[in-house]
Amino acid sequence: MVASADGLATQAGLTVMARGGNAVDAAIATNAAIAVTAPHLCGMGGDLFALVHVPGDEPTALDASGRAGSGADAGRLRDEGRVEMPFRHDVRTVTIPGCVDGWVALHQRFGRLSLDEVLAPATALAEGGFPASPLLVGSLAMLDDDAAEQLGELAAQAVWPGALVRRPGVARTLRVIAEGGRAAFYEGSFGEGLKALGPGYFTDADLTRRQAEWVEPLALDVWGHRLWTLPPASQGYLTLSAAWIAQELPVPPDPDDPRWAHLLIEAAIAAGHDRPEVLHDRADGTALLAADRLLPRRESISADSTSKERGHLPTANGDTTYLCAVDDDRMAVSLIQSNAAGFGSWLVEPGSGINLHNRGLGFSLEEGHPAEYGPGRRPPHTLCPLLVTTEHGALTATVGTMGGDGQPQILLQLLTRMLLNDQHPALAVASGRWVLRGEASGFDTWTSPGGPGVLVEGHASSEWDAGLVARGHDVARAMPFDSAFGHAHTIVVQADGTLAAAADPRARIGSAAGG
């Protein structure tokens, strides 16, 4: 089975499986296809994290997040009067995109088919064209004039949902990667274009250095299962921390009960309120999960009142894509790939037409901060894929979501519904959610002066609002099935050994399918 935010991408993964590929081949094919069809969410100009489960082994974790260029200079930005990283239209917020290095690393270690076969469905979509999705069209409409000019090839074609879009530069780049691997991409015309966008910022040595790194995953036992995620600079530790805190709270069996939402909100806040101070690329993930660190946070939670004041809600959100694949042998891949905010930095490598992420927005400009912007540093990352196994190592589920700072909160709700409340994955994924939000974007939950507010999805329980307000939460309602609440997908191994899967209806054109 494959699940993703785009039905064409899901079919690309299944096609590769049908040709003899395994779950890793399928995941790369799915990611490459959605990089073609959904550049507002992801692409070769962004970063990648993945977890791979091979039966009989512990999961392996790949951090394919890019580093800042050798020209990164926090002092210069401070001298310009900046107190936070540029958000868009500035190459200094672009770190070296790690996606392609991630594909190559995954393929070299686990792939069964040739890279050319794996990338062929995506190449065909880029050359032959694909119908523009409603979300792509809507995202293009939100660009300013400079960004619309940068992304002119897309903007000229994706003028209405269903309009045919071709991306010849992306097709050429996929062929280059298939033939020449990572060097042909980073040290070829794409790398030259990247250097030209910021003279002196990226060097040849920066682009020669591999961005993908196999790392030790984090794991924690919760609700009779073992949860696995990426270590820092991923914020994945927050998912595990919040679930560990929640498992000993009196979470009711009925998710419509406002106490269900309240206790999970409090668990998420207890786990994450200090994220800006502790999350950076040198942080000790195991120490962040230590019981003596988390137990006082759990003990501070009240079933009757909230522990923190809430601020106002934002007007924007980040964009990412999550996908997962499980094959007949029960190899599983949980993969997340992102441009950070929609279309990323709104800068484009001109030779390929590939838009570049703005993941550098996670850096701090505070002098001496552990996540201070600097050469070769990886920024704190919102991306946090998840694998669930039994305590003995058998695969239970792959799960992940887009959603900026809200990813661990969305995953906490899905885990609670599936592992504690025993809900079918389709019901768990489709049910209404809450997310914590800051005042300006989906990336400022923990830094807004007023603290996070609670945004409740339109079709969530009607009982939540009054119950949360009575406990001191600042609550606002959003529309039903709003993308601000993520695009979550999951594949679950059921008790009889068969697979069940769900793609998020909030993605509009997502699908979960098997072959």
Radius of gyration: 21 Å
Kindly state the percentage of residues in helix. Answer: 25-40%
Shape type: globular
Strand content: 15-25%
Task: Pick out the low-confidence regions.
Answer: 309-316
User: In whole angstroms, how far apart are the ends?
Assistant: 7 Å
Sheet with the most strands, sense and barrel status: 7 strands, antiparallel
Structural class: alpha+beta
What is the residue-averaged pLDDT? 94
* Contiguous helical run count: 19
Query: Main sheet: which strands, in order across?
Result: 6-3-2-10-9-1-20
Number of strands: 20
What's the layout of helices and strands?
Blueprint lengths: L1 E3 L2 H12 L4 H15 L9 E7 L6 E5 L9 H6 L19 H12 L4 H14 L1 E2 L2 H8 L3 H6 L1 H6 L6 E2 L2 H19 L2 H9 L6 H5 L4 E3 L2 E5 L2 E5 L6 H11 L11 H15 L2 H4 L6 H4 L2 H9 L18 E9 L5 E10 L5 E3 L4 E3 L29 E5 L4 E7 L5 H14 L4 H6 L3 E4 L15 E4 L7 H7 L4 E3 L10 E6 L5 E4 L8 E3 L2
Parallel strand pairs: 16-17
Antiparallel strand pairs: 1-9, 1-20, 2-3, 2-10, 3-6, 4-5, 7-8, 8-13, 9-10, 11-12, 13-14, 14-18, 15-16, 18-19
